[in-house]
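Page 42, continued from yesterday. The earlier attempt failed because a stray header line got pasted into the input along with the sequence. Redoing it now with the clean sequence only.
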Amino acid sequence: MHRKTGTDRRQFIKVCATAAATAASYPESLIASVAEGQFFNRVRLHDENGNPLTSSQLLTDESYLFFYPYVSTPCFLIRLGKSVRQPAKLKTQQGNEYDWQGGVGPQNQIVSFSAICAHKMSHPSAQVSFINYRPEEVQYAGHDNRFHRRSNVIYCCSEGSVYDPAAGGRVLGGPAPNPLAAILLEHDVQTDQLFAVGVAGKSMFSAYFETFGHRLELEFKNDAVDQWVEQSAEVVPLESYCARQVLC
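This time it went through. Structure tokens are written below.
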């Protein structure tokens, strides 16, 4: 669905240059390899009042939502209840390996993932979300054909896919063929502000626009739902965006 234009080409060149400068300035905050990923615009996250979002504003185990790298692609932002300092090595269904950066912020607790399920692209809308972060203990069917119970997972109730946000979105159970695509974050230690800079892993964006493009245009009242986010993105609690969260 994305329409390539001369502007897109100029933007791509600009973003490549920005990404190179970003990686040089913040090497500890980015994945070691983006072979299975892509840099997009460096976008400052801001709160509902338009002020730059700081890591200290995020409540532990609260689900937050923002849109990145496109204006209609939802992402989870989560402050986990533990530090995640170690990067994770992940692999796509096609066998492509990539590294996830781990958590960012003062205690390395803050993580972000695309909120588009890697199976059939269930995602939060203004009406309902079947995919949610679950801080409480839940039961799910693992790949070993046994039932497991654990807390702090991202659970898609549409088909039962379960992901571990403390391990780069790794699949714990269900039919999802790939980990959740991870959103690459930067944390500015001087201002405590947060930035989104790219995506790592197998994203679902092309299929998402092809499948839901018309509905997204109606929901967002915008016929350019496949345009990149520029400069800043608003972060809101998921419960304030979705009228209903389906929990299983």
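Notes: The radius of gyration is 17 Å.
Reminder to self: strip header lines before submitting.
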